[in-house]
Design brief:
Number of helices: 8
Oligomer: single chain
Strand order of the largest sheet: 3-2-1-11-12-9
Radius of gyration: 17 Å
Largest sheet: 6 strands, mixed
Number of domains: 1
CATH topology: Purple Acid Phosphatase, chain A, domain 2
Shape: globular
Order of helices and strands: EHEHEHHHEEHEEEEEEEHH
CATH superfamily: Metallo-dependent phosphatases
CATH class: Alpha Beta
Number of strands: 12
CATH architecture: 4-Layer Sandwich
């Protein structure tokens, strides 16, 4: 049994609540699909906790932008990344802890494989930037999704969209809520399922609780964890370079 988390986005209140929940249920093995940073007010604390608690950490698009530049980001996201870089990037006299965080973020791998299962932030075609959206299934089978399904053998765990769901190789989709937060592989599929694990630090499915999954040989379970989002909102409001909308969306989960 292990957990998969994603899209922490510098939200230490949400991340702390998730790890407390993991401790309560006795899960120690954690894989993170990336976007440790971006949007939120506590990048230092989140990076430290992720380094300490996660067996595997992958690169998300915000982690990538931190190092290489937020060229295709909207203004609030770009300002948040620029502020985060100023907080995290070592100066000439930086100590060991500062350099250790930066080295960790600059060396994050793009994908991880365990047997027939693949873990990635975005998509096998574009590990950091491509969105795999359930709504795209309304158009039916496509060459794009054929390529995506060809990129793994059984289960593909992704984040990036912040929308917890499954998409199967029968081109069926279910939100986590529609599944009552549990999917038993291989329901609804022939051989393959894409599992979006949701977002710890910035949910966008109109549920403001942090979201992650616990994986067993028989099932995948989404867990929703309440946290003090108002505390996170207040901290965002105190940082000039973080736009107010980044706080407001935490309350409504969009």
């Amino acid at each position: 049994m292990y957990a998969v988390i994603s899209d922490v986005h510098s939200n230490i209140e949400a991340l702390s609540a998730v790890f407390a929940d993991l401790d309560d249920i006795g899960v120690r093995d954690v894989i993170c699909l990336g976007d440790v940073v971006g949007y939120g007010p506590n990048p230092l604390e989140c990076v430290d906790m992720i380094m300490d608690r996660c067996r595997i950490v992958l690169r998300g698009n915000h982690d990538e932008a931190l190092v290489h530049g937020a060229y295709a980001f909207n203004l609030p996201a770009r300002k948040a990344i620029d502020w985060t870089r100023n907080v995290l990037k070592p100066g000439w006299l930086a100590g060991h802890a500062v350099r250790r965080r930066w080295d960790f973020l600059t060396r994050l791998p793009l994908r991880h494989e365990e047997g027939p299962d693949v873990f990635i932030h975005g998509s096998p075609r574009d590990p950091t930037n491509e969105y795999i959206l359930a709504r795209d299934m309304s158009y039916g089978p496509s060459e794009r999704f054929e390529h995506i399904f060809a990129g793994f053998e059984r289960l593909l765990f992704v984040g990036h969209t912040h929308m917890p769901c499954v998409i199967t190789d029968r081109y069926q989709t279910r939100t986590a809520q529609q599944l009552d937060y549990r999917y038993r592989f291989p329901d609804f599929c022939e051989h393959k399922t894409i599992v979006n694990v949701g977002s710890v630090g910035q949910p966008r499915d109109r549920d403001n609780r942090a979201c992650y999954v616990v994986v067993t040989p028989q099932s995948i379970t989404w867990r929703r964890v309440a946290y003090d989002f108002e505390k996170t909102m207040a901290k965002i409001g105190q940082i000039e370079d973080l736009e107010p909308q980044l706080a407001a969306r935490l309350k409504i989960g969009t």
